């Protein structure tokens, strides 16, 4: 853009002005969006100031929507002015026998539910009236009473000065089950119906309502309220539950909603719900007490009016009822509020408020949209556009309210849009006043301050102006350069000149909108510099040029450093920094190329060799990593000597190398290269005065000729990664067979690798699904013949193969590290089960039977090398003992001899930490390792376990028998007990008893069994 601007400035200033104006118009909408975003952010920060506007807009939308028909059959029965003034009923409060008569009448008429929006919290003037009303409610079996919270002081105090007892307790037949945290309105006090009435009701519900704002209008009803750690439903919610015949367990209050038998009523964090108003006063059928109790057949209401209806009883008499302002009325009785809320629940038409995140999204999107559409227009057009945007938002919100019962707050977005429009108008006026002046200054500075060389080619007379910077870029002075085009083109590199001329012609002839080319130019010092030239033609339409370009102007930039940096980046990206060989990326690219050739040619064959230096870690550990790097460099040079020019050798990383043998005749060609590599690598290498001999394990994977698969040409390998994988597999086979050799990949290797992968997958899935079980092999006191404990062993219960022997997965689990969670599972389950046995047989616990410590039931658990090497092993074992409540003295840990001796110093410290917990320690498989007697004496051990390989071969006289006898004698001299494993015959048992061996285990006594069988063995108390 900078160079193009320079060219245009040289050509024509007025072109600059026109282009700037065009660019400015294109970016206006981005500026408008930014203004909208800023205004929306300001409105968002002060959104609390718009609560009144939002509620006013909601009321207006309800009025615009109009009234709607109630969903269910909800009937109101009210105490009006006539009822209060009628001598038959008496003055307010009415005698409760009158209410009892109404209940009986409604019950006889077949009302489905009856709800009193009337408080009966004070005693009746006639003590018998409470009993009459309670009896009527009890016989009806469908009456819901109201409770009130935040009771005024005037209602709390009685005339005699005593406080009114506050009684709030949910009826036993109705409750709310809470799931999650429900933050409802908290009540400071409450009154409920008199105790006889409360007991006779099927449910109780609170009737409190609170104006949301200072305008006194009512828009929400609290469906839940909390008092004394209990949650109470609203009268509407309680009535609906009874009408729907729901059990308490089916009414669930959770975050953001109340689930009423599948009807999900949205609530806010205070337990309140929006009221989706049916309409104004008289929206529901309303009858008076006079209508209900009249004995005159002409005035009496037919039973059909109440049959299967939900009847709400309230008060509308002047001065004796609560009145509230709603969107449809400024004086609506409270009983109609309860009817509206009840209709919302039964009709499943609750009013949802747009989620707060979406409100914020609407605010920002609407303001940003307003800014984008108004930024480029005058005040009149902006006002019209804002009007259309506002009408669209109003109509959309009204439709959502009417059709989807969704309340969308629109006042805040509208205010943000109005603010955005005002700011856009002011910003546009300021911007227009100085943008041309800024444009002229900007392009003038660009020309003067550019570090590029500028050229201006007059095509009519074929002369070029070269700026001083253009000349200095090539080490030339003003006097050394004429205005001829040859000064430019004669210095272009011979390999680039045709491309440069072609690019210029393409631009002049209209095939390319601009000229841009990167090429080499000769410097005064005869070196070549990379430059980037850009240019634009200028067309003057007059009688002479006839629309042909008359001039071409542009710039030239020295990009030598960038090109060198790019070449360096390519080298680093594709070549190994240490050896200079191709790296994995370049090798895989060439391998991919060879695969593509193999798919096109039937006779094409290639091979991949995967090399791994044997015992390279010894060099690093003994001579250091610097010498190790030197060895890798020597290896790289020797490998290059073994290949043809068209072959590739690469270093993948570490001590791994790969070789791509291109276009070979047969597999034996690859084998001969492998033999040549082995021969070359076998030569001694001098590393800092140390003569070193090295070898490599080599795996060979060979492509196969093209074949037809489903009628299409194909090869064995579709992806280069597969070929490299197979070569790697063959290398590992060579290493496992003794190193310093090569192996050619075959399908058996692949099958073995796949089997190992499946085994690892099955093991991981088994851990996730808890498919491991703990089996117990008994340990016998050989002197008494009694059971003294068990060894806990892991068993894998495979869903398809059944019980998998440990020999098939334990070693693999060790190699992959999966043995750690298996060890932890076995330890926890073994400790838990042992504690259960101690509780079942307290006599097996040495703490409860100190006189017979030899009868203590022990549990032995094996520790793998991976587990023993973990620093957090001791805290984990301590936590497991604490959680399972097993005494540490009942746990014995078995560690193999080879694991302990890998790092004797660290092992001693670890063993002493375990011993400090009170855990007993044993060396497993003793006699198969290389332990030192001095270390054996230092370790805080309790037992030695003689390996089964010695026990199974024992005879009355023989070397193995003498070995076992020696181990037992050595252990006893070190105050260690001895366990012989693998006891399978009576002869072996007799020999061990004669040698004074302490304990034994093996198939002679029992195979490993599950916990149920082990429990039966303890109970049997068998003696061997």
Structure description:
- With 1024 residues, this protein is an alpha/beta fold.
- It is built from 35 helices and 43 strands.
- The strands form eleven sheets. An eight-stranded mixed β-barrel has the order 35-36-38-39-40-41-42-43, surrounded by five helices. Strands 1, 2, 3, 6, 7, 15 and 16 form a seven-stranded mixed β-sheet that branches.
- The model is unreliable at 1-22, 154-166, 706-715 and 848-853 (pLDDT under 50).
Sequence stretches where pLDDT stays below 50 over 5 or more residues: 1-22, 154-166, 706-715, 848-853
- Largest beta sheet: strand ordering: 35-36-38-39-40-41-42-43
What's the end-to-end separation, in Å?
Answer: 97 Å
What can be said about the biggest beta sheet? 8 strands, mixed, barrel
Number of continuous helical runs: 35
Features:
35 helices; 20% strand; seven-stranded mixed sheet; alpha/beta; 1024 residues; eight-stranded mixed barrel; flat
Question: How are the elements arranged and paired?
Answer:
Elements: H1 2-11, H2 13-45, H3 51-65, E1 74-79, H4 81-85, H5 96-109, E2 113-116, H6 127-140, E3 143-149, H7 153-156, E4 177-178, E5 185-186, E6 190-191, H8 195-200, E7 203-206, E8 220-222, E9 224-227, E10 230-233, H9 235-243, E11 251-254, E12 257-260, E13 263-266, E14 272-274, E15 286-288, H10 289-293, E16 310-315, E17 323-324, E18 332-333, H11 334-347, E19 352-353, H12 356-374, H13 379-404, E20 406-407, H14 411-449, E21 453-458, E22 463-466, H15 468-472, H16 486-489, H17 497-508, E23 515-522, E24 528-539, E25 549-558, H18 560-574, H19 584-600, E26 607-613, H20 616-623, H21 625-641, E27 648-653, E28 656-661, H22 667-681, E29 685-687, E30 690-692, E31 696-702, E32 707-709, E33 712-714, H23 720-736, E34 742-744, H24 747-769, E35 772-781, E36 787-798, E37 802-804, H25 810-816, H26 819-840, E38 858-863, H27 865-868, H28 873-884, E39 891-896, H29 897-902, H30 904-916, E40 920-926, H31 933-938, E41 943-946, H32 948-951, H33 959-973, E42 977-981, H34 986-994, E43 999-1001, H35 1011-1020
Parallel strand pairs: 1-15, 1-16, 2-3, 2-16, 3-7, 4-11, 5-9, 19-20, 31-34, 36-38, 38-39, 39-40, 40-41, 41-42, 42-43
Antiparallel strand pairs: 3-6, 8-14, 9-10, 11-12, 12-13, 17-18, 21-22, 21-25, 23-24, 24-25, 26-28, 26-31, 27-28, 29-30, 32-33, 35-36, 35-43, 36-37
């Amino acid at each position: 853009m900078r160079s193009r601007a320079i060219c245009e400035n040289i050509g024509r200033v007025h072109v600059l002005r026109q282009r700037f104006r065009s660019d400015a118009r294109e970016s206006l909408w981005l500026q408008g969006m930014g203004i909208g975003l800023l205004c929306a952010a300001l409105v968002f920060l002060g959104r609390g100031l718009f609560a009144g506007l939002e509620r006013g807009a909601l009321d207006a939308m309800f009025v615009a929507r109009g009234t709607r028909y109630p969903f269910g059959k909800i009937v109101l029965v009210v105490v009006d002015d006539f009822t209060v003034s009628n001598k038959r009923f008496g003055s307010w409060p009415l005698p409760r026998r009158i209410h009892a008569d109404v209940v009986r009448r409604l019950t006889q008429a077949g009302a489905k539910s009856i709800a009193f929006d009337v408080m009966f919290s004070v005693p009746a003037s006639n003590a018998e009236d409470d009993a009459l009303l309670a009896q009527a409610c009890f016989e009806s079996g469908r009456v819901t009473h109201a409770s009130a919270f935040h009771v005024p002081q005037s209602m709390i105090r009685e005339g005699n000065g005593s406080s009114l007892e506050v009684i709030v307790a949910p009826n036993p037949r109705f409750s709310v089950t809470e799931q999650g945290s429900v933050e409802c309105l908290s009540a400071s006090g409450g009154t409920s119906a008199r105790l006889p009435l409360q007991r006779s009701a099927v449910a109780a519900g609170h009737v409190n309502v609170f104006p949301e704002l200072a305008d006194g209008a009512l828009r929400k009803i609290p469906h839940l309220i909390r008092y004394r750690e209990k949650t109470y439903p609203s009268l509407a919610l309680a009535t609906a539950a009874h009408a729907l015949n729901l059990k308490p367990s089916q009414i669930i209050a959770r975050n953001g909603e109340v689930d009423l038998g599948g009807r999900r009523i949205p609530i806010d964090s205070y337990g309140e719900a929006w009221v989706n108003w049916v309409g104004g006063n008289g929206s529901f059928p309303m009858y008076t007490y006079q209508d209900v109790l009249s004995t005159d057949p002409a005035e009496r209401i037919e039973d059909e009016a109440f049959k299967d209806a939900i009847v709400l009883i309230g008060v509308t008499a002047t001065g004796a009822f609560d009145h509230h302002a709603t969107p449809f009325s400024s004086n609506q009785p409270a009983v109609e509020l309860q009817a509206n809320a009840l209709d919302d629940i039964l009709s499943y038409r609750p009013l949802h408020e747009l989620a707060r995140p979406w409100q914020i999204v609407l605010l920002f999107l609407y303001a940003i949209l307003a800014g984008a559409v108004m930024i480029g227009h005058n005040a009149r057009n902006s006002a019209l556009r804002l009007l259309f945007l506002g009408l669209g938002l109003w109509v959309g919100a009204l439709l959502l309210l009417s059709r989807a019962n969704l309340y969308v707050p629109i006042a805040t977005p509208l205010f943000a849009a109005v603010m955005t429009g005002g700011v856009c108008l002011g910003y546009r006026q300021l911007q227009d006043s100085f943008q041309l002046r800024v444009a002229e200054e900007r392009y003038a500075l660009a020309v003067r301050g550019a570090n590029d060389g500028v050229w201006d080619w007059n095509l009519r007379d074929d002369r070029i102006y070269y700026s001083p910077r253009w000349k200095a870029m090539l080490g030339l002075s003003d006097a050394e350069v004429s205005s001829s085009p040859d000064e430019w083109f004669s210095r272009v590199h011979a390999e680039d000149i045709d491309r440069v001329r072609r690019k210029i012609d393409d631009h002049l002839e209209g095939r390319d909108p601009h000229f841009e080319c990167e090429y080499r130019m000769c410097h005064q010092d005869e070196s070549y510099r990379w430059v980037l030239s850009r240019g634009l033609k200028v067309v003057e339409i007059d009688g002479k040029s006839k629309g042909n370009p008359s001039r071409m102007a542009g710039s030239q930039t020295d990009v030598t450093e960038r090109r060198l940096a790019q070449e360096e980046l390519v080298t680093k990206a594709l070549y190994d920094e240490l050896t200079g060989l191709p790296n994995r990326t370049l090798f895989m690219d060439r391998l991919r190329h060879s695969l593509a050739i193999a798919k096109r040619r039937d006779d094409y064959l290639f091979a991949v060799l995967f090399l791994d230096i044997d015992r390279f870690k010894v060099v690093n550990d003994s001579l250091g990593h610097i010498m190790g790097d030197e060895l890798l460099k020597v290896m790289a040079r020797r490998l290059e000597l073994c290949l043809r020019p068209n072959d590739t050798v690469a270093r993948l990383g570490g001590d791994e190398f790969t070789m791509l043998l291109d276009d070979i005749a047969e597999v034996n060609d690859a084998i001969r290269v492998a033999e040549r590599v082995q021969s070359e690598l076998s030569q001694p290498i001098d590393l800092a005065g140390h003569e070193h001999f090295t070898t490599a394990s080599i795996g060979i994977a060979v492509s196969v000729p093209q074949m037809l698969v489903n009628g299409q040409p194909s090869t064995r390998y579709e992806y280069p990664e597969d070929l490299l994988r197979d070569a790697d597999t063959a290398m590992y086979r060579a290493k496992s067979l003794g190193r310093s050799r090569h192996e050619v990949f075959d399908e058996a290797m692949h099958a073995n690798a796949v089997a190992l992968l499946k085994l690892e997958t099955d093991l991981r899935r088994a851990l996730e699904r808890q498919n491991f079980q703990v089996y117990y092999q008994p340990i016998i006191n050989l002197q008494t013949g009694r059971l003294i404990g068990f060894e806990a062993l892991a068993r894998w219960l495979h869903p398809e193969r059944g019980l998998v022997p440990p020999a098939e997965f334990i070693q693999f689990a060790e190699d992959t590290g999966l043995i750690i969670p298996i060890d932890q599972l076995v330890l926890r389950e073994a400790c838990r089960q042992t504690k259960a046995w101690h509780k079942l047989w307290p006599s097996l616990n040495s703490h409860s039977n100190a006189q017979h410590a030899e009868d203590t039931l022990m549990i032995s658990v094996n520790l793998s090398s991976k587990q023993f090497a973990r620093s957090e092993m001791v805290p984990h074992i301590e936590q497991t003992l604490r959680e399972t409540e097993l005494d540490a003295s009942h746990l014995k840990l078995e560690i193999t001899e080879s694991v302990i001796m890998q790092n004797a110093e660290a092992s001693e410290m670890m063993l002493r930490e375990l011993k400090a917990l009170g855990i007993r320690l044993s060396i497993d498989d003793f006699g198969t390792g290389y332990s030192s007697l001095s270390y054996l004496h230092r370790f805080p051990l309790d037992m030695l376990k003689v390996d089964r390989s010695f026990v199974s071969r024992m005879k009355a006289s023989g070397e193995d028998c003498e070995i076992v006898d020696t181990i037992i004698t050595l252990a006893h001299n070190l105050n260690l007990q001895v366990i012989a494993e693998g006891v399978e015959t009576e002869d072996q048992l007799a020999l061990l008893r004669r040698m004074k061996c302490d304990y034994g285990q093996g198939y002679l006594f029992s195979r490993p069994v599950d916990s149920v069988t082990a429990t039966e063995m303890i109970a049997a108390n068998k003696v061997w």
